[in-house]
Amino acid sequence: MASVTGRAFLQEKMVREREVQVTHGGRFLGTIDFLSEWSGKVLSYFIYFLVVLLMYEIILRYFFDLPTMWVHETSKLIFGACSVLMGAYCLLHNQHIRIDVIYGRFSPRARAAIDCFTLLFILFFAGLMVIYGIPFAYQAFQLGETPIMAFKPLLWPDKAAIPLAGLMVVIQGLALWIRSFYLAITGKELA
């Protein structure tokens, strides 16, 4: 009987701790994670579109001797935008480059402290992407900038992806920094 009561007490305590974590940022951090996850999944479908687009070019070029002048440039623009916009998704899933041979030897609290320090650099760089990317994209929009090629797509959507990606990385980076800081200080993971 005592073990059942003890188990019930522990379960109730875990529920209370979880509720405290949710009220102290869990929902906010969960929303940020959801947005990063959602954007990454949506952007992943553009890769399928790129495959179809490039297959179209290959078939036209090599089977019908009818190369296009727009597929190559369009694929570069789509791939460029997808590459920068996937930064927050990669940060969410811890997929950025790290020296795991050294990093993996530390305790979870030490890794969290290291993450707090290294995330400052990521936040700084992503902040620069936002600060310098906005005028860069706005100028391309104002000028109606196009590449120096026969096919002339507008470049501002691709250039607008730079500050948007920076903003997404800053937001996801802050969420990760908050979690890492909490873990480094308390030794417990924040939901």
Instruction: Provide the β-strand percentage band.
Output: under 5%
Q: Total strand count, please?
A: 0
List the secondary-structure elements in sequence, H or E. Answer: HHHHHH
Alpha carbon gap, first and last residue: 32 Å
What class would the helix/strand composition place it in? Answer: mainly alpha
**Number of separate domains:** 1
Task: Show unreliable segments.
Answer: 15-24
Categorize the overall geometry: elongated
Radius of gyration: 23 Å
Helix content: over 70%
The average pLDDT is: 86
Quickly count the helices: 6
Largest sheet: none
Describe it for me?
- The chain is about 80% helix and about 0% strand.
- The protein starts with a helix and ends in a 5-residue tail after the last helix.
- The protein contains 6 helices and no strands.
- It has one domain.
- The chain is mainly alpha-helical and about 190 residues long.
- It has helices spanning about 1-65, 70-85, 85-90, 100-105, 110-145, 155-185.
